[in-house]
Amino acid sequence: NAGVTQTPKFRVLKTGQSMTLLCAQDMNHEYMYWYRQDPGMGLRLIHYSVGEGTTAKGEVPDGYNVSRLKKQNFLLGLESAAPSQTSVYFCASGRVSNQPQHFGDGTRLSIL
Amino acid sequence: TQLLEQSPQFLSIQEGENLTVYCNSSSVFSSLQWYRQEPGEGPVLLVTVVTGGEVKKLKRLTFQFGDARKDSSLHITAAQPGDTGLYLCAGAGTSNSGYALNFGKGTSLLVTP
Asked: In angstroms, rounded to a whole number, what is the distance separating the alpha carbons of residues A23 and A17?
């Protein structure tokens, strides 16, 4: 039972570098989400997608881009990493809007 | 954004004690979820409540949705060390406030033997 798989699990970047986080789900869910979790801040939505080929901004989208070229994959990109983007990033998927979501185990990203 | 306030922020109790954590908002939600998150892992869904006044039980955990659908509580009876974790509530809006859940900041629970 794979569910939601995130890669990589850990990454250290230097300021200004770029990278892409990959999220894959095998449950045929329409909705996919990217969150970041910071101490004392809870989970904050970065971007989300309501289906293949669609993306939309969440609460904290600045500095990030996303793509959903295939239904099962949702990519999160950092074009020019900044120390403020040091966080744990979680991907989630769901069958329909407002339905319970399934989460991956996170990507721990440090920007030096 | 529809804000959810969770209390207490931290809770440390001994095995066998009872506890209640709260999730409050000034907004009405169409449904509310409770998750538990363990260190190094993603949140795992415990329950979804939909109807005002609804009560759901999951073994020693009892979840209640307020009559006005603005608040919820989680009661744990006879807590065990395995209950240790971060408990998150998340509410789904009734309006077109977005497709995603709004999360509270969580209650961090530590149960010691």
From this structure: 20
Q: Which residue in chain A is spatially nearest to B86 when comparing CA positions?
A: A42
- pLDDT by residue (tens digit) across A8-40? 999 999 999 999 999 999 999 999 999 999 988
Contacts 24+ apart (CB under 8 A), A13-16: A13/A78, A13/A81, A13/A109, A13/A110, A13/A111, A13/A112, A14/A81, A14/A111, A14/A112, A15/A81, A15/A82, A15/A83, A15/A111, A15/A112, A16/A80, A16/A81
Q: Which residues share a beta bridge with B31?
A: B92
User: Which of A9, A31, A74, A98 is most worth mutating to test chain B (most B CB atoms within 10 A of its CB)?
Assistant: A98
Tell me: the pLDDT tens digits for A43-94? 999 999 989 999 999 889 999 999 999 999 999 999 999 999 999 999 999 8
Q: Dump pLDDT digits (tens) for B62-96.
A: 999 999 999 999 999 999 999 999 999 998 876 55
A77 interface with B at CB cutoff 8 Å = no
Please indicate whether, in this complex, the C-beta atoms of A98 and B101 are within 8 angstroms of each other.
yes
Which pLDDT does position B101 carry in this prediction?
77
B→A interface, C-beta within 8 Å: 1, 30-31, 33, 40-45, 48, 88, 90, 92-93, 98-101, 103-106
In this predicted structure, the answer to whether residue A107 has a pLDDT above a threshold of 60 is: yes
Q: Hey, are the CB atoms on B45 and A101 less than 8 Å from each other?
A: yes
